[in-house]
Amino acid sequence: MRLVPTILCGGAGSRLWPVSRELHPKPFIRLADGQSLLQKAFLRGATLPGVKEVLTVTNRELFFKTEDEFREVNKAQLPTSFILEPFGRNTSAAIAAAALHVVKAHGEEAIMLVLAADHLIEHQESFANAVIDAAELAQQGKIVTFGIQPDVPETGYGYIESEGNKVLRFVEKPSLEKAQEYLESGRFLWNSGMFCFKAGTMLQAMEQHCPEILAATKACIEQSRRAEGKGFAELELDAASFAQVPDSSIDYSVMEQSSLIAVVPCNIGWSDIGSWSALGDLSAADDNGNRIDGSALLHDVSNCYIQSNKRVVGAVGIDNLIIVDTPDALLVADKSRAQDVKHLYAELKAQGHDAHKHHLTVHRPWGTYTVLEEDPGFKIKRIEVKPGASLSLQMHHHRSEHWIVVSGMARVVNGDNELFVRTNESTYIPAGHKHRLENPGMLNLVMIEVQSGEYLGEDDIVRFQDTYGRV
Amino acid sequence: MRLVPTILCGGAGSRLWPVSRELHPKPFIRLADGQSLLQKAFLRGATLPGVKEVLTVTNRELFFKTEDEFREVNKAQLPTSFILEPFGRNTSAAIAAAALHVVKAHGEEAIMLVLAADHLIEHQESFANAVIDAAELAQQGKIVTFGIQPDVPETGYGYIESEGNKVLRFVEKPSLEKAQEYLESGRFLWNSGMFCFKAGTMLQAMEQHCPEILAATKACIEQSRRAEGKGFAELELDAASFAQVPDSSIDYSVMEQSSLIAVVPCNIGWSDIGSWSALGDLSAADDNGNRIDGSALLHDVSNCYIQSNKRVVGAVGIDNLIIVDTPDALLVADKSRAQDVKHLYAELKAQGHDAHKHHLTVHRPWGTYTVLEEDPGFKIKRIEVKPGASLSLQMHHHRSEHWIVVSGMARVVNGDNELFVRTNESTYIPAGHKHRLENPGMLNLVMIEVQSGEYLGEDDIVRFQDTYGRV
């Protein structure tokens, strides 16, 4: 039996702003142990017995960052493959594309285990046991969903009424009263958004229940770019034809329609970490009910969650607050209103505010850059280039650049010259000079770039050649 | 009649942390109109009719910064002189030194107007009228205090019981009950800490009531360095002998002892801005009672004061909070607990934490520097040098420095070379090279310094020559 963990890398995490941003969504949030939710999802699938590869469906903007995340934890160097979406198109499209991909690679009998990238599962062993049960049902031709045994009358989740592995019905998010009733009945489970099925079974079910989604996805794949080779996407979905795929959740398109559905009830320490309140609850509180991640000074403070990586937070006479500090944005919210943080996220998006889109540290295929200071006439960046990576061969019309290497070594093209710049050496790139920065070493290259000029916008860039297809 | 406004630049402002720091105390706090409390105090005295100079008693560590503050607002180029204390020694010592200084310069008949540097007076015209009354009484040989007509039963101030200009008694900070009684009686005034007297009168009173303070201050002045000339201290008090001056407030040493005391009752919009709550109240609130200085996004927020210069603050479901954000420290406090912010200040001091001592931007005689980034192996600073100013001729054993001029022009000594470095040019100072940086221009010089080396402490500096006496 071939089991292919298939990670759907979604979840904006608008309620986890300011740590989550459009280009740093919820799966990339790191927990106190240093691992991101995405890394935890990867390991969740990768460490199951007999797993030989992991498939991930993600936004193409997040591809390089996703690869970086996997590289950090993929000690066994398990092969990874990717389906890159130009934009989110709901779970039916993602699962259709993944199933078509798996059938092409491994045939219809291959079993897919669909995992969310933005959830937490505390008990890996119980989870692995549930997967064994699910895979057995899948082999018998079932489409299996994982039902979480509820312990509180949660109104934010969908429910499944069940008997053993049999699904009686799916229920939308209930009222508190209903949720209480469900909890007490012992017959209801939370719909976790994780699934297990044979790739062929899913394609047949789609053929039957949502043929237009399947057909449009097939058509899209035919238009799409397939790239093989190290560190590159397997399949980058074509934007125009992907836009033709109907936007629908797999729950609606298949789960609620098919007669093949089964459920595996499980008790695996599952949480969708829906808010700062839920995230805060993951760590132990001190005697006053406070949870501190970072540096804080408290005077008569109780039941607060404080996260601050750089700044010291001084707090006086406050109770039940969430304080989350990042380099360019700060959140202060009452814990009981944690769900409403999404309104700030939406408002920042509407304003086109930078603090909605990305952090001060911006991820690029070759590494990261951080704007340290910006003033009329100059801008200072810290640039970090991964070993072996290379920025595009480029030119700026309006700005000159001073480059000072502070760690590692750089290979630099500067006009007609090619040179090595070592730690504590510098070079100067006049406006109009073609240039390229590369890290030929084995360690990260850290460079300080001082830009000088009348116009310093990121769009003053002419790319001549680029390893990552950005010309 | 010669009237010499004498500013006592005191007030730590521990309740106004994180904006106030040991080396950026309360008088330097800027209000929403862009002026600091110190600048307001300067203008308060300097714009009185007939004033020809301003005398300031301040800590020597704050001298250059104080001069910078004055320069910004001293459009009339009124002469300024300074008495520099090595440490605070309470108001009696400061006033004794100032009175001795004024008698030496202008004789015993000169009238001194002692002003606090950390208060606010809203009605300058009423204040000027009160000063006319006070000066008249001073000319008649009185030691005059300004009594503020109370409008709330404040328990944080001392009170004066009075009849007309006659002081019946001074009262320490009262209980709320007593304060209420005082307020209703109409016979009590707040003791504002502002005074007016002939310099000779004060010295005679001190001779009579606290002769040991006067004698010790005289002895100290004999040991002290007197420097004349542009931009330099008149009198830098000798530390060892200043330590011999008894530590006592002028209220205790003179005001409560002398029979010459008079009071001028006044209604001048006085406030000592004792906390963030008081400071917040200076600006107008929006419909929800919020006062915002900076960038904030509010969702169901009421009665909050939010100050943030750089970061965006997102707030959800909070009420009656103070949020003050600075580059390296953040305060979140319940407004009703604004007084308790001083406990954080004390705790940071006890820890020796940087956020107690200074801001990320550090003031030097020649300008400022800001650490933008610090990592093992390198440190990046933004350095701003005032026109005509010069850093010391210096050398570092362990670090090399890359200097990039991003605004203005620098004259640089680099080993045996002397060169000009213009905007968008750079130079490299190897470890062990003697070097000096100077701004020969008319505009501020802004430079980015990238330090590289195994040890980057501020104490790796050998000074050979220094304009500001720091060799």
Short summary of the structure?
Two copies of one chain form a homodimer. By secondary structure, chain A is α+β, with helices and mostly antiparallel strands.
Structure description:
The structure is a homodimer of 471-residue chains. In chain A, the strands form six sheets. In chain A, strands 1, 2, 3, 4, 6, 7, 8, 9, 10, 11 and 12 form an eleven-stranded mixed sheet that branches. In chain A, strands 18-19-20-27-22-25 form a six-stranded antiparallel sheet, with no helix packed on it. A four-stranded mixed sheet of chain A has the order 14-15-16-17. Chain A has 471 residues and is of the alpha+beta class. The first copy, chain A, is globular. In chain A, helix 6 packs across helix 7. In chain A, 25% of the residues lie in helices and 34% in strands. The longest helix of chain A has 17 residues. Strand 17 of chain A pairs parallel with strand 15 of chain B, so a sheet runs across the interface.
Kindly state the percentage of residues in helix of chain A: 25-40%
Taken as a percent bin, the fraction of beta residues of chain A is 25-35%
- CATH fold annotation of the largest domain in chain A: Spore Coat Polysaccharide Biosynthesis Protein SpsA, Chain A
CATH superfamily of the largest domain in chain A: Spore Coat Polysaccharide Biosynthesis Protein SpsA, Chain A
The CATH first-level class of the largest domain in chain A comes to Alpha Beta
Number of strands of chain A: 28
Radius of gyration over C-alpha positions of chain A, nearest whole angstrom? 24 Å
Largest interface, chains and sizes: A-B, 58 and 58 residues
Domain MannoseP isomerase/GMP-like beta-helix (chains A, B): 300-348
Organism (chains A, B): Glaciimonas soli
Enzyme class (chains A, B): transferase
Protein name (chains A, B): mannose-1-phosphate guanylyltransferase
